[in-house]
Every structure is written in C-alpha cells, then in structure tokens.
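#dry-run=false #mode=assembly
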Amino acid sequence: MTYYSDMSEKILSPDAPVLGRTGSWLHRFANPGRFLRLAQPALPWLAAFSIVLTVVGIVWGYAFAPADWEQGDAARIMYVHVPAAWVAMAGYAALAVCSFFSIVWRHPLADLAAEEIGPVGAGFTFVCLVSGALWGKPMWGAYWVWDARLTSVLVLFFLYLGHIALIRAFDNRSHGYRAAAILALVGAVNLPIIVFSVQWWNTLHQGNTISVTGGSKIYITMLYPLLIASLGFYMSFLTLVTARLCAAIMERKTRALLLAAAEREA
Amino acid sequence: MNLTPFIDGSYGITVLFLIGIFVLTLNRYRSAIKRLAAVEKR
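#status=ok
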C-alpha cells in the first residue's frame, strides 16, 4: 500500500496548499483506493450500457430514422457527428474541471484523470472533424472550409494534443501536470466560442438545431436516435476514462511496489 | 437500406475508432490487473 501512503504524503506535505473543508472532503472522496473500489465493480455495467446505447442509437439513425427532406441520406452522418462533437466538448469541460482541482487542491487523482481524459477526448474530436468533413463534401462541395465552427473545433483538437504533449514534455511529471492544467484552463475559453460561433459569425455550418431552452428544430423521429446515440457516446467516454483511470492507478501502484521491493533489496 | 452513408466513411471511421479504443483500453486494464497481481504475489 506504499502508493496510497505516498499520495497522502504528497497532499499533506508542508509545501502542499492548506486544504480547507472542501479540500478535505474532496481528498476523502477522490482517494485512489476508494475510487478503485467503487469504479471496478461498476465498469462492466458501464461498458454494457455504453455498447447497447451506442449500437441502438447508431443502427436506429443509420437504418430506421427517416432521411432528411433536403439532404437525403447524407444527413444520417448526424448520428455519429453530433454525438462525437458533444462528447468532444464535454470531455474538454471535464478536463478543465480536473485541471482546476489540480491547480487549486493539487490532487493527484485530478492530474491522473486529466491525463486519461486527453487522448479519449482527442479521439472523439478527431471523429467529429472527420465525419464533419465527410458530411461537408456532399453538402458544401468541399471537405473543409475555414468556417468559425470548423476552425474552433480544430483548435479544440490542437488543445487536446497540446495537453497530451505538455504532460510528457517535462522530466518531472508533476511540472508537466501543472503546465498542462494551465493550458487546459486557458483553452476552456474556446468552448463558448465553439457553441456560439454559429451565432456570432456568418458560418457555412448550420446553426444550433437542438435547444434545451427553446424549441428544437428537428423532427422527433430523428431526435430520439440522436439522443440515444449521444447518451451512448457519453457513456462510452465515461467508461473509457474510468477504465483508463483504474489502469493508471494500478500501474502506479505496481511501480511503487516494485520500487519499494528494490529499495529493500538494496 | 441505403449504404451511402457507410460508404462515405463516417460510420466506418466512427465504428473503427470506438472498437479500437475499447479494445486498447481493455487490454491496458487487463494487463494492469495482471501485473499488479503478480507484483503483490511476490
């Protein structure tokens, strides 16, 4: 159990910030051992729900939802493009929240979570960009245009890549976590730009079709598969990040145990 | 069933990405469990 005592020592060390009531609560809640105990039994259920919802949503949208009156079958790309875009943005928001916890409370689990969110979020952003390009070709006659929405999502992809690279750019990993957390927080300004880009500028990309506050401009038989596919993508993201986080904790614990064994032998 | 959207590639890329990342994550998770168990057994 060397790893966990190391984590506690790191948090409670003299150079660590003084943890207030919220910090203490977070520390207890985000204890790596407790996280593993909670997450590992939940993982098979999360994975099962993710797969079922994603398959149902995608197959429904692909084969059973009606074609669009104007765009025809090409509009079916929406059932993979829109969920990937939503998850890409939600993933970055989660990355920014973890970075905030990391900077304010220096919690190692927040650093690990941010590290594991990065590649998954970048993957979903890549899917969003590629599926969008494949949708753009039949609709606009071009795979890519320097439109505000497309460009801001491309910036989001680069922010993810920058975050991944920055964590690994320092010999001391904690310096990498700190620098990457600052990048993630600064980059969060891109999220409202992505959302409102279609309102602030004249874009080739269509405006927001689905609204939580106002009426959605999408027919209900297209909305249901879209929402189910989106839920499936969100669950997939959660499952992947949870599994990667569990693996990262176990890998660190393994390394700590090996180091402790080597020190005993030396 | 019209296969055009799949042929366009968007569904193919998405499905490949999802399967790929799930398989890679599962492999990493399993190997992390195995290695930890092996070290703890020593």
